[in-house]
C-alpha cells in the first residue's frame, strides 16, 4: 500500500504490509503495522500521485521496513537525533497516511513549527485542519479553544443558515427547503474528502472497493448539487412539506448541541487548561491573531488537550512553556493516563529529559531508519545501553583472543601436517577453520539464554551465529568547546551592584510603571557557574540585557573586566539565523563564519571549530542555512560565539531546538569548560548538570542517583549558584533547581484541584 501528501515543496510517501487489524474497523484499539516505509521527496506533482522509480529513490528515507506499535492508553516518547524524521513520522500518523490506521480514529496533533506558529494545527478525525473560521470576526483565545472542541463555529454556521431559511418562510415558502439542502450539501462535500483520502490510502482489492465507493459518493454529491439548483416549479408539495419539517427538526437538534450547560462545562475546562499553561485572565479575550508565536502555540496545545481523542501527538510541547507550565503539563498527562475507561494513547517528542522521564512509559527509538522499543525512561535506557556495550564488548574481546589462538593452531597444524604427511593434522586444521569461518559470533541470545540458530537467527545466513554487534554510543555528536584564555590580571568578569531597572514612564500613561528588577547584586568570576530560574515575565531577559550591556540600569552599576570577552546566546538565535538564510539563500555555515571572523581565522581553523561542534565537512560548506535543522543552527550560533574565545558564556534557553542526546553532550561539554557560564533555562537537567555539577546515573537496581562532581574535576571552578528571580528580586536557592521545582509542584496541585 502507498500514499502521498504534498506539503509546500515536499511529499511524504508511505507503504507498509497488511496489518492484522481490519482497516474498516471504526474503533481504534491499537496499531501494529509491519514493513513500514516512509520517504520524503521534493514532489511537485499533483496531490495523490504516486512517485515511482528514480523519483522515489531520490527521496530521503525516514523508515525502512519499520514496525509501528502503539497500544491504547500508553504514553510513548519518540526519541532520535535531530534530522532523523521524528516530526515526519508524527505527521504521517496524524494525517492517516499510514494504511492500517482506522479512518475514524480521532487524532490530535501539536506540530513543531516556526516562531509565528502559523503551521501549528489540530487534526481531527476528518483530517481537516485550519486556523481560519467562518466567523466574521477573529476568535478570542477562549473562543478558539472551545470552537476546536465543539465545532461550535461550524454548528453555528448551520444554525444561521437554517434560521434564515425558516424566518424567510413567510416571504418564500421554499426558503427552508433551500437552507436544508444547502446544509446537507456542505456536509456531503466534507464527507467526500474522507472517501477520497480513503481511496488514495488503499491498494489491491480494498483499494478497488474504496475507489468504487468514491465514484458512487461523487455521484451522490453531484445529485445533491442538482437538487440544490432545482427550480421551484419542479418541487412537489409533498417534498416541500417533508423537507421544511426536516429543516425545523435539524435546527432543533443543532441548537441542543450548543446548550448553555454543555458549553459552560467545556468553558470551565478550557479556562483551567489555559490557566495551567500560563494564560493570564486578560489574555483569554484577546484575538488569537494578535498573540506572539509562543502564546499562539500554547493556544493550540490547549485545544489538543481539551478535545476528545484516541491518539494525542505532541511535538516539542515544552518549547514555549516555563517551568510552571511544564510541571502542570506533566501532571495533566499523568492524570489523563488514569482518566476514564479509554484513555488516549500519547506520543510525544521532547528534548526535556525530566519531562520525558516523568510522563512516558515506553520509548520508541528512531535510529538507522528503524524503530525499536524500550519499556522504561531515558535513564534506564542509557543504563541498559551502557551495560549492553560492556557485556558485548567483553564478549567480542574474548572471542577475538580465541580467534587469534585458533588461527595460530591452524597454521601450526598445517605446517606440521605438510611436514610429516599427517592427514589427521590437516583434517584438524580444516575443522578448526570451519569453526572459525561460520561458528563464531553470539554465544547467548538477547534474553541471556543459550544461542539457538532456529530461534535467534531466522532466515538464510552464511554463518551459524549472529555477529557480535556492539552498540555505538547514541549520545549524538561530540561537542568540544575551546578553552577560555586567561585574563592578564585578576578581577571579576561582571559585577552588578545595587541594580534597579524600570522602563521609562510614559507621560500619557495613567498607571505607574512597575519596577522590573530591584536591588540586584551579582558577581561572576572566572570558572563560576551561575543559573537563573524563574517564570516567564519575571525579568530574566532584562537582567541578561544589563549583563550584556544592551540596556543601562535605572539605578546601580554594571561593570565588566577590561579584558572580558563575552559570548551571548540569545533564545532567538535560531530564528535570527533562519531569517538570515531566507534573505541570503546561498549562505552556508562556513561562509557566514568566514564573514564574521574577517580574516582572523583561516578556513582550516573554522572547519575545525565547526567540526568540533557537530558541523563537519560538506554540512558546513555546502548546505545552505535554510536546509539546516534547528539543532545544527544552535551549533552554528555557538560557533559564532566561540571563535572569539570568550571567558564568559551567557546562554538563554539554548536547549530549545536540540534533541536530548545533543543536550546531554552539550551539558557535558559545558560542565567541563574552564570559563564562566551563566545559564537561563527551564531545562532542569541542564541546570543540574552545568550549574550544580550533578550527573544523573542509574545504579544496578535501576534507582536514580545524583552524583556530585569530583573535587579534582571542579578544581578550576569557584562557585556554583542557582538564583530564583521573582517579583524583581533575586534570591539564592540553597537546594538548587529542585527547590524551585518543589514550590511549583505545590502551585500545580492547587491549579489542578480548582
Automatic annotation (TrEMBL):
Claim: Nucleotide-binding is one of the keywords in the record: yes
* Gene3D superfamilies per record: P-loop containing nucleotide triphosphate hydrolases (3.40.50.300)
One of the Pfam families matching this protein, by short name: ABC_tran
Annotated region Disordered: the residues are 414-448, 696-715
| GO terms, molecular function | ATP binding; ATP hydrolysis activity
Q: Where is the ABC transporter domain?
A: 33-393, 501-726
Asked if the Swiss-Prot or TrEMBL record annotates the protein with the keyword Phosphoprotein, the reply is: no
Q: Which SUPFAM superfamilies match?
A: P-loop containing nucleoside triphosphate hydrolases
Q: Where is the composition biased (Acidic residues)?
A: 697-714
Name of the protein in question: ABC transporter domain-containing protein
Q: What is the lineage of its organism?
A: Eukaryota, Fungi, Dikarya, Ascomycota, Pezizomycotina
Amino acid at each position: 500500500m502507498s500514499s502521498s501528501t504534498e506539503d509546500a515543496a515536499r511529499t511524504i510517501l508511505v507503504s507498509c504490509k497488511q496489518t492484522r487489524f481490519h482497516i474498516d474497523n471504526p474503533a481504534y484499539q491499537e496499531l501494529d503495522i509491519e514493513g513500514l516505509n516512509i520517504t520524503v521527496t521534493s514532489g511537485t506533482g499533483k496531490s495523490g500521485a504516486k512517485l515511482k522509480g528514480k523519483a522515489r529513490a531520490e527521496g530521503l528515507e525516514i523508515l525502512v521496513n519499520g514496525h509501528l506499535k502503539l497500544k491504547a492508553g500508553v504514553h510513548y516518547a519518540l526519541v532520535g537525533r535531530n534530522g532523523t524524521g521524528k516530526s515526519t513520522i508524527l505527521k504521517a500518523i496524524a494525517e492517516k497516511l499510514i494504511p492500517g490506521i482506522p479512518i475514524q480514529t480521532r487524532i490530535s496533533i501539536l506540530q513543531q513549527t516556526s516562531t509565528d506558529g502559523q503551521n501549528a494545527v489540530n487534526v481531527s478525525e476528518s483530517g481537516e485542519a485550519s486556523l481560519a473560521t467562518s466567523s466574521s470576526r477573529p476568535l478570542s483565545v477562549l473562543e478558539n479553544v472551545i470552537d476546536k472542541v465543539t465545532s461550535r463555529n461550524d454548528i453555528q454556521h448551520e444554525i444561521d443558515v437554517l434560521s434564515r431559511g425558516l424566518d424567510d418562510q413567510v416571504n418564500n415558502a421554499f426558503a427552508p427547503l433551500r437552507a436544508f439542502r444547502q446544509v446537507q450539501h456542505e456536509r456531503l462535500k466534507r464527507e467526500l474528502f474522507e472517501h477520497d483520502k480513503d481511496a488514495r490510502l488503499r491498494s489491491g482489492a480494498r483499494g478497488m472497493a474504496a475507489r468504487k465507493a468514491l465514484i458512487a459518493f461523487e455521484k451522490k454529491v453531484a445529485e445533491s448539487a442538482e437538487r440544490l439548483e432545482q427550480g421551484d416549479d419542479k418541487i412537489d408539495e409533498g417534498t416541500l412539506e417533508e423537507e421544511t419539517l426536516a429543516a425545523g427538526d435539524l435546527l432543533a437538534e443543532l441548537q441542543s448541541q450548543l446548550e448553555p450547560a454543555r458549553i459552560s462545562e467545556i468553558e470551565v475546562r478550557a479556562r483551567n487548561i489555559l490557566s495551567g499553561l500560563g494564560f493570564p485572565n486578560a489574555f483569554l479575550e484577546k484575538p488569537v491573531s494578535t498573540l506572539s508565536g509562543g502564546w499562539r502555540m500554547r493556544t493550540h496545545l490547549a485545544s489538543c488537550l481539551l478535545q476528545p481523542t484516541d491518539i494525542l501527538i505532541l511535538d516539542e510541547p515544552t518549547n514555549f512553556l516555563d517551568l510552571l507550565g511544564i510541571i502542570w503539563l506533566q501532571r495533566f498527562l499523568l492524570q489523563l493516563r488514569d482518566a476514564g475507561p479509554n484513555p488516549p494513547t500519547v506520543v510525544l517528542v521532547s528534548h526535556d529529559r525530566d519531562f520525558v522521564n516523568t510522563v512516558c512509559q515506553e520509548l520508541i527509538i528512531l535510529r538507522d531508519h528503524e524503530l525499536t522499543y524500550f519499556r522504561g525512561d531515558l535513564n534506564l535506557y542509557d543504563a541498559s545501553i551502557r551495560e549492553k556495550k560492556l557485556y558485548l564488548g567483553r564478549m567480542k574481546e574474548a572471542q577475538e583472543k580465541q580467534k587469534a589462538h585458533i588461527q595460530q593452531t591452524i597454521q601450526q597444524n598445517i605446517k606440521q601436517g605438510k611436514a610429516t604427511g599427517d592427514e589427521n593434522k590437516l583434517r584438524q586444521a580444516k575443522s578448526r577453520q570451519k569453526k572459525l569461518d561460520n561458528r563464531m559470533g553470539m554465544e547467548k541470545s538477547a534474553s541471556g539464554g543459550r544461542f539457538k540458530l532456529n530461534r535467534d537467527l531466522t532466515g538464510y545466513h552464511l554463518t551459524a551465529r549472529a555477529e557480535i554487534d556492539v552498540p555505538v554510543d547514541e549520545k549524538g555528536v561530540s561537542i568540544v568547546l575551546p578553552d577560555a584564555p586567561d585574563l592578564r590580571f585578576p578581577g571579576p568578569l561582571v559585577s552588578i551592584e545595587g541594580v534597579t531597572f524600570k522602563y521609562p514612564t510614559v507621560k500619557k500613561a495613567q498607571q505607574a510603571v512597575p519596577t522590573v528588577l530591584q536591588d540586584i547584586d551579582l558577581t561572576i568570576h572566572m570558572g563560576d557557574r551561575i543559573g537563573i530560574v524563574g517564570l516567564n515575565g519575571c525579568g530574566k531577559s532584562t537582567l541578561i540585557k544589563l549583563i550584556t550591556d544592551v540596556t543601562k540600569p535605572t539605578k546601580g552599576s554594571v561593570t565588566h573586566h577590561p579584558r572580558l570577552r563575552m559570548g551571548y546566546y540569545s533564545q532567538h538565535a535560531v530564528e535570527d539565523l533562519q531569517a538570515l538564510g531566507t534573505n541570503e539563500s546561498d549562505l552556508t555555515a562556513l561562509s557566514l563564519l568566514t564573514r564574521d571572523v574577517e580574516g582572523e581565522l583561516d578556513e582550516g581553523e573554522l572547519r575545525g571549530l565547526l567540526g568540533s561542534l557537530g558541523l563537519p565537512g560538506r554540512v558546513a560548506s555546502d548546505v545552505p542555512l535554510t536546509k539546516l535543522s534547528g539543532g545544527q543552527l544552535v551549533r552554528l550560533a555557538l560557533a559564532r560565539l566561540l571563535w572569539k574565545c570568550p571567558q564568559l558564556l551567557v546562554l538563554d534557553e539554548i536547549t530549545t531546538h536540540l534533541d536530548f542526546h545533543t543536550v546531554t553532550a552539550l551539558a557535558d561539554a559545558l560542565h567541563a569548560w574552564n570559563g564562566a557560564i551563566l545559564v537561563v533555562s527551564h531545562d532542569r537537567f541542564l541546570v543540574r548538570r552545568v550549574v550544580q555539577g550533578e550527573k544523573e546515573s542509574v545504579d544496578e537496581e535501576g534507582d536514580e542517583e545524583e552524583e556530585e562532581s569530583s573535587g579534582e574535576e571542579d578544581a578550576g571552578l569557584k562557585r556554583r549558584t542557582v538564583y530564583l528571580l521573582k517579583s524583581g528580586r533575586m534570591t539564592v536557592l540553597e537546594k538548587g533547581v529542585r527547590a524551585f521545582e518543589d514550590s511549583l509542584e505545590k502551585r500545580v496541585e492547587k491549579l489542578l484541584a480548582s
